[in-house]
Amino acid sequence: MADPAHVQMQMQGVGPPQVQGLPPALNFLAGLSEVNIHQHLDILEVAIGWEKNNKYRLCNSQDQQFMYAKEDTDCCVRQMCGPARPFTMNITDNNEQPLIQLYRPFRCQASLCMCCYLQEMDIMSPPGLSVGGVKQLWTPWKPKFEVHDAQNTPLFHILGECCFCCPCTDITFQVVDAQKGHEIGQIIKHWGGCREICGAVNDFKVTFPADLDVMKKTLLLGSTFLIDFNYFERNKNQ
Q1: What is the per-residue pLDDT across 133-174, written as a single tens digit (0 to 9) for each?
Q2: What angle do CA 77, 120, 132 make, to 5 degrees?
Q3: Measured between alpha carbons, how far is 233 from 225 in angstroms, rounded to an integer?
Q4: How many C-beta atoms surround the C-beta of residue 101 within 10 A?
């Protein structure tokens, strides 16, 4: 994890709009139009093939870390359920202050009747207080997700490509306003080369309007983790 004092210095002087009552890291997110998410490469995990809790750095466009995400899952569940496992993801600032919590229940990923096994995730900020969630919608070909607020009002649709698992290329998911129908951002899964082939780790970029409500940005960040586990996470002990 990056040194908190160093990152705090990096965050100063950027001048994002301040939202009263929000922790500094969420206020920093309020001024961003892009967040890069980098999964931590654990050499020991790769060497022994033992699935460990995933960890991620959340950075601005200059790759300056301002948040850190760590999975909290039982060891046996990780080994037996692989990418389909239920998990809690805790997202903190660089001083380990809790900011966001994600909860994904167990859902089978492979079935002849995929409409009965659609994925979903609850998103909380602060931890314990739901601000909404994301759920998979059934489609015959392209991935599609609905992002909703705490009242289950649809906010965004996330639309994937037909060939969403092609190697050696970036994969783009469009973020579309659920009411107006136009694209407001993207979730891009970057091709990671040897890092991805050998280490099974993934990198994402999430883009949205800089003036988008910070809780809507939080929902889109949380949705990225569900997309990661649903399509790009590999079981390292197989």
Answers
A1: 999 998 888 899 999 999 999 999 999 987 766 778 899 999
A2: 120
A3: 10
A4: 21
Least confident among 3-12, 106-115, 122-131, 227-236: 3-12
Determine the Cα–Cα distance for residues 106 and 32; give it in Å rounded to an integer. 32
Tell me, what DSSP letter sits at residue 183? E
Rounded-to-integer distance, Cα 186 and Cα 33, Å: 11
Instruction: Tell me the C-alpha distance between 212 and 191, whole Å.
Output: 27
- Token digits for 106? 């167990």
Q: How far apart are CA 157 and CA 178, in angstroms?
A: 6
pLDDT at 115 over 80: no
Strands 120-124, 98-104: parallel, antiparallel or unpaired by DSSP? antiparallel
How far is Cα 140 from Cα 143, in angstroms, rounded to an integer?
8
Indicate the residue type of 125: S
Three-class secondary structure assignment of 105-130:
CCCCCCCCCHHHCCCEEEEECCCCCE
Q: What is the torsion angle, in degrees rounded to the nearest 10, for the CA atoms of residue 201, residue 207, residue 210 and residue 215?
A: -70
Residues 35 and 57: their CA atoms lie apart, in Å, by 10
Q: What angle do CA 61, 65, 69 make, to 5 degrees?
A: 115
Q: Residues near 149 by Cβ (< 8 Å), separated by ≥ 6?
A: 131, 132, 155, 215, 219
